[in-house]
Hints:
With 425 residues, the chain is an alpha/beta fold.
Amino acid sequence: MLKLKDVKIAVVGLGYVGLPLAVEFGKQRGVIGFDINQQRINALQAGHDSTLEVSDVELGQATNLSFSANPAELEVANLYIVTVPTPIDEHQRPDLTPLCKASEAIGKVLNKGDVVIYESTVYPGATEEVCIPVLERVSGLRFNQDFFAGYSPERINPGDKEHRVTTIKKVTSGSTPEAADLIDSLYNEIITAGTHKASSIKVAEAAKVIENTQRDLNIALINELAVIFNKMGIDTEAVLQAAGTKWNFLPFRPGLVGGHCIGVDPYYLTHKAQSIGYHPEIILAGRRLNDSMGAYVVSQLVKAMLKKRIHVEGARVLIMGLTFKENCPDLRNTKIIDVVRELGEYNIEVDVYDPWVSAEEAKREYGLNPVSEPKMAGYDGIVLAVAHEQFVKMGIEGIRALGKPAHVLYDLKYVLTAEQADLRL
Length: 425
């Protein structure tokens, strides 16, 4: 079994999850950071992280960290940490292609005694049922005899400068008691918040996938309440503030549920549940409701425009914000795109403005060309979709100045008061 002092780490996948992890380990021991995106590697070698999760100063502090897009260079490691994306396809089914390709790359350089740790979100059983067979097939080695595995789910919160990789408690697990001990000890080198060693890989996988499923369902409940209260003419935020005075009321807010976790993870769990013969009623109902909120927002906006006698077809609407959350450039699974596309169904011209977003990435991911600056007094409708600090600083007068004399302002994020906005969720 590999000894802690002899561990040489390779982090496979250098996105929002992998890079912060590689940087922290790279402050203490030798680490190679691998990514298939050569442009990403070039930028990191030049000392800059385009995701803004790691500052240039922090990147420079990882003096033992090197970067490569050449999979052959992974052979210098003996412990591999896989942090590649695990998205869903257009049919809401798990897409494990990146995970399998990463496992193939590792399998080609895997040696006896090596350890492979997966951090990517999966359904319970995926590590041992999907990833391990790939490692065995490509390497020719035998699991738990020649090599070992573990699962330690990522808990990265993009854009959050308070809850960082080192300050969030880490769940760990291993395929044998010895592997579990090694993996737990390794993470304890960098995780100041401590670790929780799960009893098995499947337990750790399940723990991760239910964290965001629980949040998804709570938000779905609040979204449904918002729809009900809107029909009754009651301000949802005022209701939530009143209910929040009770000590055990959970402070969730309505909204569009996107991002790399909450809008995706529940589908991994429901996929596995259905494969073993159980149809998960509540989880899927919550997903359907949250996925329908983009269309609901547009229907509310269009009705409000009609009430103001604004001609809908050919109208121009400004969407303020495209990222899935405030103050970060992350576009993954953003549900703002649902609003943009639904507006297009009404033949409404849409301008998307987001100072945090790379125009090239928006074009590549969604076929959008965000505007560099919104038009003053140019819009029949304004949707404040993301609470970026730049938008908050504009205040009501600055935001209203973007609208025509007659326009509708829809605040999805409670940046404005009920009196300032024409519509709120």
